[in-house]
Amino acid sequence: MFLLSVRSLFEAALFLLALGLGVTAALGPVDETVADALYFGAWCAAMLLIFSLALRLPLHLRGRLARVANFGIVSAALGLALLGNIALYRHDAHFDATVSGRFTPPPELETIANSLQHDVILTYFYNNKDDDAYAAKQVLAVVGRQHPRLRVRALDLDTELTAARDYGVKMYNTVVVEAEGRRTQIENTVDLRQMAYAVERVLQRRTQTVCFITGHGEHYAPGHVHYSHVETLGGDQPGRSDVLEAPPDGLDRFKLAIETIGYSDRALEPAASPAIPEDCAVVADLGPISAYAPAEVQAMRDYLLRGGHLLLAYDPRFSVAPELASLLKEVGLAVESGVVVDPLNHYGTDQEQAAVPYYPPHPITEEIALTVFPGARPIRLFGPIRGLTAAELVATSKDSFVRPLHPTSTAGDAAVAPGPRLLAATVQGIWPGAGTAPFRLVLVGSASFATNAFFPYASNGDLAVSMIRWLAEDTGTPLLKPESYSVPEMRLTHRQMQVTFLLVEVMLPVSVMLFGAVVWWRRR
Fold first, then answer.
1. What is the pLDDT of residues 64-83, one digit of tens each?
2. Which run of H or of E encompasses 404?
3. If residue 35 lies in a helix (H) or strand (E), which one and from where to where?
4. pTM for the full model?
5. Pairing state of beta strands 309-313 and 150-156?
6. What residues are paired with 424 via a beta bridge?
7. What is the pLDDT of residue 224?
8. Burial of 209 (0-12, 13-18, 19+ CB in 10 A)
9. In 386-459, where does DSSP find H-type helix?
């Protein structure tokens, strides 16, 4: 009976361990965290069963080979304990039992750590008396164990004075990130998302410049961005968030977002220069009011002919000059007049703030959720043009229609008729008949979606940054969710508000009354 129970327990332990390994193998290329959790659970179960097996062994064996048997039992127990600890160490699993997820790495840090192809050294000089800094140090240690490519060194600035002097660090909570001879540094931060952005910046082999066109009343304004500081905005989360205070129609949040991931920006006046400079990785014009001069349109055309990357976003009030219309027509694009109204999908109660929850497949929109386009104008994508690849990015629902911009204007039947309206499209390839290198062009029927007022809305900021990265052919690092520099808010479409009202205000009270009536009927 004893041998049978020992054998059954040992077989059960092996079965549980094999089950964990088999499930991991059957799932194929699963997330490393999931695989480690399965290994961890299997080894824990196996160790518990072996411990149960050990409880059934007699304390002292008798006979001529008692000493040998006792020595063998002790050696086997120590060997199993050693192997179990090695296995658990190699497949470390981290569980955060706090309600707020205080010791859980943010998605941005997990994403960048998972994508590392080369070693990155992150040195954190923390303040041992700062609770938030200590929590950030703990989370960094967990991420470093789970991702060997991210080599984390957490040093107490008060005791590691030599290392601080070597790095030139003088402030608490300073992060130094190094990779392939490049280095970046952040001072006085415990925000793990900012550390993830620092890793992404250091992975950029060069700083690319986004040139924003000015001189036509655009939203862009050169210069530094001023923002206020809000302590512990994330509740119990370690870190501090910055809240931007800027004009609602500016692009300050957009500028900060691209600067955070390693881009620089500057103003560009096509009227003052004969050609667009070669160092402009991306040229963007968001929200012009006055029309372009013919020479400016020609400069854009020349830029695209030699393989430029151009982002154009026009609000309904912008007047499209014939030269610009002709330029866009050459690549199968057109900008139409009017304001798109979407009675089905819109933000809040304003039907002119079209909300788009779904997108056609494209690298720009593959990780984008809901976006809001206030006061957008429709654009059109003509049939295929030889040598060019065109794609729809954003379109409204089948119930949307176009309202004339001026009350006295009359819209045609096609504009009044309900149907999906295209709000953004891309074209890439070699310019027909005259191009020398592949160009990329993104046309958007709204510039307001990227302004300070709407950049934090749902995934608006993600979409704006993703457009810049696609235009710049920046695929070396994963797309991290940009910092919105605003107080976190939950934003719902009109339909989501209706469903929430129906469930919370109608279904919940009615169900409580019905259950109460049933209980009363059964007890009466």
1. 666 777 777 778 778 877 87
2. none
3. helix 32-56
4. 0.74
5. unpaired
6. 394, 444
7. 65
8. middle
9. 413-416
